[in-house]
Design brief:
Blueprint (H helix, E strand, L loop, with lengths): L2 E4 L13 E4 L3 E8 L14 H18 L7 E9 L6 H15 L7 E6 L9 E9 L1
Parallel strand pairs: 4-5
Antiparallel strand pairs: 1-2, 3-6, 4-6
Helix pairs in contact: 1-2
Length: 135
């Protein structure tokens, strides 16, 4: 794989994520923000934060597979979280863990979480976008 994930000495360990991704490939893949919708566009996990997180990650996995990639090619995830408060962290971690188990991905690449007031549709609680590198 063209990606090496690292937890540098002097930075905290962050569960199933790594703090740094080193990319050596030359083909960049940018995946638009994915929301909790299935292949037919139907809502998944309405009102269920963990279920929406899980579906977003699964959608990223589907998009990666379409271009011959996997989470092993992802250098960066950006997650937009509606009305984020720290007490939602266990639900976020639950959704990531469920998706990780289904996708066979551990550890996850670096992540930036951004709290937002709202997303494009009122039922959407989370949106995930990814950047990947291929050889």
């Amino acid at each position: 794989m063209p990606i090496t994930l690292v937890n540098p000495a002097g930075l905290p360990e962050v569960g199933i994520y790594r703090q740094v991704a080193v990319a050596t490939g030359s083909k960049l893949v940018f995946i638009a923000g994915q929301i909790a919708r299935d292949a037919d566009g139907a809502k998944v996990g309405e009102g269920d934060f963990a279920a929406q997180v899980e579906q977003c990650y699964l959608n990223i996995g589907t998009a990666l597979a379409e271009v011959g990639a996997s989470f092993g090619n992802v250098v960066k995830l950006t997650v937009y979280l509606v009305d984020w408060t720290p007490d939602k962290m266990p639900l976020f971690a639950e959704g990531v863990a469920r998706a990780s188990a289904k996708l066979g991905v551990t550890p996850m690449p670096p992540l930036t979480g951004i709290g937002v007031a709202a997303l494009a549709e009122p039922d959407v609680l989370v949106e995930v976008e990814a950047t990947a590198v291929l050889d």
